[in-house]
Fold this sequence. Notes:
The complex is a heterodimer of chains A (140) and B (194). With 140 residues, chain A is mostly helical. Helix content of chain A is 77%, strand content 0%. Chain A has one domain. Chain B has a domain at 1-84. The longest helix of chain B is centred in the first third of the chain and has 26 residues, at 51-76. Chains A and B meet through α2, α4 and α5 of A and α3, α6, α7 and α8 of B.
Amino acid sequence: MKHNLILRVVSKFLIPLIFLFALYVQFHGDFGPGGGFQAGVIFSAGLILYALVFGVKTAKQIIPPFILRCLASLGVLIYAGTGVAGLLLGGNYLEYGVLGSTQVAGQHLGILIIELGVGITVMSVMLIIFFAFAERGQPE
Amino acid sequence: MIDSLVDITLLTLLVIHAFAIVYLRNLFAIIMLFGSFSFLSAGLFVVMDAVDVAFTEAAVGAGISTVLMLGTLALTYRRDEEKQEKQPAHKPWLPLFVVSITGAMLIYGTSDIPDFGDPQAPSQLHVGPYYLEKSLPETGVPNVVTAVLASYRGFDTLGEVTVIFTAGIAVMLLIGGRRRSTRDDAKAGDDHET
């Protein structure tokens, strides 16, 4: 699909909007529909679109597989680490109330952080799976 | 009135999709129909005011899984005629019988289910009212779904994220990395044997 001018131009317009929408879904999940899971999927969809139009190799130069693996683990680590942080601050595991000055502030912070962890893991795992499928099809 | 009209339209389209998927033999067309089936389900969830579920269904069901199914199709066929599903070797009567009985039982079972949105339904009387009343003062998050997922049911969500992570690892272990030129190896092996 490398020579298809219309697809290239249109996707160049669309991809930034997709990323922006993913970030909106990520950080606005407390107030509207959405959250880390949906945001991660939308973000990875933007990168998959890029990989489909400009080639998997180019996409891998943007996000190398090594970094993707680190990000996938980092997301789970952020989530589980938030729980441990609660333990260290004297609460129960995954009790967010102790993270902030008040119960509500702590809950808000905790939810924001763990949603970020979910988003990072989902985004990188979706891309890992997509790259595994796409790379397998190309004889090296 | 409008709601039920939309419901009927969407459900009719879903049934048409289901029949088309069963009837068609072209795997590419079937994957595309799966995608639009998911998208119609997402519309149905929106009508039922479950926007978070609809969001997930549209993003995952219609988006990512269609891409992954196309990737699988690209990996598994070698010639163009293999994109067609083979004619089944058996007669469809026994599966049809089983499916009809199961479907009839399920429809019979729905007669005991409380009406849609019934405030006296058991699921609305358990912890639901607590979340609706207390989630905003306790967490300060207006979206109750997010409050339940991330805070009240934080352990479950941690488990889900771990499941996704594990799935990624499993895919990497199974088909990740460079493909060894198995066909050439096999040919060379055959040559040696013969």
